[in-house]
What we know:
The chain is of the alpha/beta class. The chain contains 16 helices and 15 strands. Helix 14 (364-367) links the parallel strand 14 and strand 15 (372-374). The radius of gyration is 27 Å and the shape is elongated.
Amino acid sequence: MSTPSKVSVLITVTGVDQPGVTSALFEVLSRHGVELLNVEQVVIRGRLILGVLLCCPPEVADGDELPKDVESAVRGLGLDVSIERSDDVPIIRQPPTHTIFVLGRPVTARAFGAVAREVAALGVNIDVIRGVSDYPVTGLELRVSVPPGVNGRLKTALNRVAADERVDVAVEDYGLVWRTKRLIVFDVDSTLVQGEAIEMLAARAGAQGQVAAITEAAMRGELDFAESLQQRVATLAGLPATVIDEVADQLELMPGARTTLRTLRRLGFRCGVVSGGFRRIIEPLAEELKLDYVAANDLEIIDGTLTGRVVGPIIDRPGKAKALREFAQQAGVPLEQTVAVGDGANDIDMLATAGLGVAFNAKPALREVADASLSHPYLDTVLFLLGVTRGEIEAADAIDGQLRRVEIPPD
């Protein structure tokens, strides 16, 4: 058996993090002429774990000088070190195939253990784990390698864990497409803003209960949206058009909405809304939030009074998907690089058309077809699914003087 020309050595350093650890270690390594294969480091609450994989001739790895010098340098800083030799010189491994996000308030050890157990049972290897958020939810990202043919079973198993453990678990493909999303569109009512504008209008006509029941049935997918919209709008007949502006002034954004859009703009996203609601209500908000695109319905107004009818093409379930395709074409963005976020059955086609469809506090009909589901009422959780961390968000906000955290009451 021939002697290998080179072998690999793994050096693992652990202990209290401090400046100069990496510098001291590599000063030693440079004296021995080794080649670097990989370096990975993590610091958790001031505790350092540093792994250095290198290759060198067998006589260097097996001699006394390299281990002695490394141990002297590291232990001199008060840290621990282990050195492992192998005849194999690994090549750069293939990147992970998928990313798993686990979000919760809180994420318990039991919940994360259940995720890890299902992953292991399907032969899925966890390559990297990192924290992405501590506010408004705890967020963990796992980059994993999924064997061929297992993806469907993995999503089914993790959906079960999410329901049992009351956390959000999303599985996404990991690759260039995932990291190059460029256009995002939001539904408006109960997604970008709290509540339903049509119900706020109906309250002024004394028909809020009737309209709320129709809305709920439509969002569950039990009624055709276009028909339900016409029924709801009919209750508004005779109201002065000024109620539209009154409702627009009363809209409340979903928590985290401003943070979400501010961050997306920093990342170069084009942002839009696609709504079964009403343009005259939405457009002032879209202007305030600096949105690029708006698609919504138009209420008919004659002599300053609502007629109870919608004019022009209705933005219904197919209309929402059509609007997304038109926005993508205008922006020059392939559909696989788009994201759609919604909460109701009328968002199904739009989410299915987008490269990433996110169900936000959604009805079951939408959760079943979405790529990812979020169940906490904070819109900025969408950012974590795009690989953005809370630290990155707040670092940018701090530069602009916009950094703030609102105290969240316990559940």
